[in-house]
Amino acid sequence: MRETPWWHDAVVYEIYVRSFADSTGDGVGDLAGVRSRLPYLADLGVDAIWLTPFYRSPMADGGYDVADYRDVDPLFGTLDEFDDLVADAHGQGLRLMVDIVPNHSSAAHPWFQKALNAPESSPERDRYIFRPSPPGRPDTEPNNWLSVFGGPAWTRLPDGDWYLHLFAPQQPDFNWNNPEVREDFLTTLRFWLDRGVDGFRIDVAMGLHKAEGLPDTALGFGARSPIWSRPEVHQVFREWRAVLDSYPGDRAAVGEVWTDSAEDLALYVRSDELHQSFNFAWLEAPWSAGAFREVIETTLAAMRAPTWVLSNHDVVRQATRYGEGAADPGAGLARACAALLAMLALPGSAYLYQGEELGLTEVKNLPSEVRQDPVYFRTKGAMPGRDGCRVPLPWSGTAPPFGFGSGGSWLPQPPEWAGLTMERQMTDPGSSLSFYRRALAARRSLRGTLPDTITWLDAPAGALVFSRDPLVCAVNCGTDPVRLPPHERVLISSAPLDGGMLPPDTGAWLLRDRPLTPRPRSA
């Protein structure tokens, strides 16, 4: 019988390194800080961790502007400290994935610096996307493309050429038609695989190739865009898959793919391409049984290796999203816990974002002088940016920086987080952290015993009920209690149940009585 790869049903915990734990007292999280908290993560019950970029970078976009893909920025530590982190993570039974940023580099990357000093149409400039103004319009951008971060996607050089940056000007886009670019990234993959990483999260995986001629376009992430999900990207990931498959241990890759269709998303996870791709439709769904069911059905119909994610370092935290417009101030967190049970009950893997287990909400009142997200500055404050979900974690104590480090934190923590620290929640059986620990333990107890398909069960209006026999998951997104389906016992619920009734904003796992037979799983 074939073993199931570890990533097939893993729970992966995203670590935004700058905001996780600071070992040096400079106010910024680092690799040694991550290493010091590995026992917490193993005890939480996750299977793997994913590190956001820790490479050499000017930090114009929190490290997603990479100047050297094969070294650690001194802000985060050293290569030796990275090796120690990998060894300790494996010793704790945790896989370790790292972020890779192939769409663009930092403007400080040696290649781009050489390009700036090279003549037009030179080999140095061909590694990036440089274009002149259209004929007869000398002061006009090469096309109408806009930056995802706001404003035009082009910056002009003194010699008249423009360079493309789909994000910040400090993040010039690579030219993926250039064979040097392709080969250099294959070298980077091997560099980190040789150091023992278990896989990669691929930033902006749908953006590498652009349509020939760079035609004008409307905004959007559709598969017919000249910017996103071009057919050529799939050959890149076939090459990457071949590298991953040449290493032992089920090394894996998951793509950050924003698209408008599950069918397009499924193309990235064909058998010779990426192992997984993030399913952002689940993250974007409102608190609604109908919306959840539609995403689940569409995803399972299209994807051979589904993923489920409710938050990450780029979006508003789910305890805030789900609470918007609710009369009860606690509704957001209650719904987030119920949604977690739905996510963990589905076939496939689940990705968590640091701090969600503590019930952290979005920090919306950060003053402008402390903000660092280029989105905020590129839009002149019209878009608040992503700093609010990146505030450093509260670990212990009763006042900031809450055990994050001895020297404060690079973004200020709200004083009211005193009640949400890991230290305080660990001993409170009714806390969000305790609930996450129970939910992850319950999922692990069922691992390998459930089918990779679901069966929908009859559900009252506003409720979602499905089965992976013998597990039944029920979530009440309505406003009135609903009766639970027949079951032998309740395995876990996100809030106390009222007899045989499921309260609003609550999820529960129910078990029917039959023996469970585990399937083999890779080591």
Instruction: Give the averaged pLDDT, no decimals.
Output: 95
**End-to-end distance, in Å?**
15 Å
Q: What share of residues is helical?
A: 25-40%
User: Regions with pLDDT < 50 over 5+ consecutive residues?
Assistant: none
Number-wise, the strands total 20
Largest sheet: 8 strands, parallel
Helices and strands, with pairings:
Layout: E1 11-15, H1 31-36, H2 38-44, E2 48-51, E3 55-56, E4 68-72, H3 79-91, E5 95-100, H4 110-116, E6 130-131, E7 154-156, E8 162-164, H5 179-194, E9 199-202, H6 233-245, E10 252-255, H7 262-267, E11 276-277, H8 280-284, H9 289-302, E12 307-309, H10 318-321, H11 331-345, E13 349-353, H12 374-378, H13 422-426, H14 432-446, E14 455-456, E15 463-468, E16 471-476, E17 482-483, E18 489-493, E19 501-502, E20 506-511
Parallel strand pairs: 1-2, 1-13, 2-5, 5-9, 9-10, 10-11, 12-13
Antiparallel strand pairs: 3-4, 6-8, 7-8, 14-15, 15-16, 16-20, 17-19, 18-20
